[in-house]
Amino acid sequence: MLRLARLSHSSARQQARKTAILSVNRPIYLKNEVKSGNIVDYIAILLLICMRAPIQQMQWTTANTKQQETHMPRDEIYTQQNAGTGTFEFNEAVVDVFPDMLRRSIPGYEASIRAIRALARQYVQPDSHCYDLGCSLAAATLAMRQGIDVSGCRIIAIDNAPAMVSRCKQIIAADKSDIPVDIVADDVRCTPIDNASMVVMNYTLQFLPIDERQPMIGRIAEGMRPGGVFVLSEKVVDEDPGIEALLIDLHHNFKRRHAYSELEISRKREAIENVLVPESVATHKARMLAAGFQHVGVWLRYFNFVSLVAIR
Ligand SMILES: C[S@@+](CC[C@H](N)C(=O)[O-])C[C@H]1O[C@@H](n2cnc3c(N)ncnc32)[C@H](O)[C@@H]1O
Fold first, then answer.
1. Domain count, the chain
2. Residue 221, domain CATH
């Protein structure tokens, strides 16, 4: 009896601890719709999460990740013996595991998608266009589709990877909504942008050659309506080499916590090194201001991953 009582006491304690961990890692605001006007709260809470993140490192894997991982094919691309010798590509193999890869590799990714939904609700104007540049599997497109609550809008989702585009079409076809979505197989550097009240580049600009980034941001600004919103999420590099080393270390810890092995981490790093070229936050801000955006700021930073918001 005593042993049973002790056991149930300890399992109750474990349950309480799990609940506490879950509520710290997935605060209520992430589960609820973020209403317009709450962006300042959103920033504050995310900063709080960033500050607390190192303490939570060991807790995350056991309490939270395993449950979510069961729903999506697992990214094991760099576990295979023959993997990791070539450069990273958005091919069929990546498409198959992409949602899992994003979630386990990009700190703050899910928060960026939720914010896109909230910003769509707040900023998308009637009879305007919304763009998802480098849409992959339409996570940001679907977030905009859910957020928009004005009439006459059209979303244009663009990607130049054939495997992404064909899977994206299936995903959009399965999503029931009255808001039309055009999925375009094209290079974002060529796609016309016009009458836009919202443009999203969620972790895509970093794949463009550096000298083509200013013209890209310039074309986005030119194609936007006054008062429109531009969301730019990127991996960044810190100007202080000591902080940069620390942030890389924290990011690798993040990946370890999400069950990537040392081999996977180093192989992916080598494969993506010359494909994804990060820049500093200051460079991104200066570029957006030079392009004609009125207000530019960081709304999310989690280690070396940043999301900026700009108002035209
Ligand atoms: C990291 S993924 C973007 C993730 C996606 N935006 C999301 O929020 O889930 C980058 C995507 O950009 C696409 N891409 C890279 N360069 C591109 C270009 N020049 N034109 C169009 N798409 C591009 C890739 O094919 C890939 O699907």
1. 1
2. 3.40.50.150
